[in-house]
């Protein structure tokens, strides 16, 4: 299944545009990896898992490229506006053909009705984006907008899993709640970074709805940032995100408890999903973030006694670029669960998790603290 970077022409494609498409692919592939892991765990079919996982990956790239054509075209000068529009719209259409190809190769008995409805919801969410007036939008309105344009991607991932794997409706509902909350957190964190641009463009979002006042009256992006950071909105936002993370953790634990599979099977599914992402989707090789010598060292440490394994796992978690303190998991309990697993596949997963976390941290903020830092830096250097 060809992925977006392969669709780029070898010549005539500006490097910044190629880098952007790869960035979107790296980001969308994270959704695909989730679909892959759940599919291969239940079906043990790597071809089916890869095909299914490619659908949200390619749809995310298509949507992002078309969004660029809408959101950025007003800033392009007349000389290259047509070329840039053509690049984004045409490549987005080409990437979408990968989705058509994938759907055609799914099993004939796969019920794709919920999948198609979720794709329609993604489109409706984009069309409705300009219909929410920031001056009158309530927090409830802004939350509904996040669900319509962000959390729905989690629904898509689960709908695909439900179409090809034999999970119960109860399990799928747990997964839907889990992904909705996860996507909500990531979408709102991204909205924090984009706050000055959203204020300038008249876009309503959760951070803006939490601010008591009218940010559009501020005279500059820097003034918008100063007003927001000087208010109680960041604290109120963190409380909302903490509630969502808590719910996410509860559903993750509840779903895990329903799996009648040994931990070795779950580890194998995660390993296969991460391998798919690292080998097929991600534009950055694992060796670029986790050098081979470090991989060998981790493998040797995990092959030692239990104390060595625990130290290695705890150190790896502490070194992750993501804000692990806000993760909705009991890390000690996780270590208790995996400490007895086979060293070789566990070492592979640990190296790939570190790589994926680094990539995720590069393409998006994964914590409110990071987003607030990016927001402040962007406002102070508008020329970048």
UniProtKB/TrEMBL annotation:
UniProt cross-references to SUPFAM superfamilies, sorted A to Z: Terpenoid synthases
InterPro entries reported for this sequence: Isoprenoid_synthase_dom_sf
Name of the protein described by the UniProt record: Geranylgeranyl pyrophosphate synthase
Lineage: superkingdom: Archaea
Organism of origin: Haloterrigena salina JCM 13891
